[in-house]
Amino acid sequence: MHFPLVLFYDESMSKRLVIGVSILTIFIVLVAIFLADSRPLSQTPTPQPQHPQQQEIDQACRDFEAMEHPVSCQEAVTFALEQAQGTVQNVSIGNVTTSTPASSGDIEIQAVEMWLVDIRLANPYFDEEFNKEISVIQIGTPLENQNVQYQKPLE
Length: 155
Fold this sequence. Notes:
Blueprint: H1 11-38, H2 54-60, H3 73-83, E1 86-101, E2 107-127, E3 132-142, E4 150-153
Antiparallel strand pairs: 1-2, 2-3, 3-4
């Protein structure tokens, strides 16, 4: 059996085909424009959680902005505020003499360069060793990543 396939193609079909392809093209372009507008051009970075006293930390470290150390001023002040709640009075860099046990059993004394952060305590306390109320404390954090901590009452 033979089925004749006859396709009638005339000038009106040609016009309909051109109109159909044009409408389909316009629809695709409009969908692409809509999708491009609804998508953000760049991802907005999620804000990093800030320390509640970030403005105070930045203010205390303003003189050290150009300095580069493995431990930044902001990190040292943040660490100090976590150790002793209060307000930052002063930040400086200084050498602190420390003693650590050596492998030979002796005590090794060394000078360590540190961030020195003076904090006026929110809750002063009475120190029996000094026999006085302590309202300002100095906390030292090494400029290099060393496992040394320093804390000293000032007032």
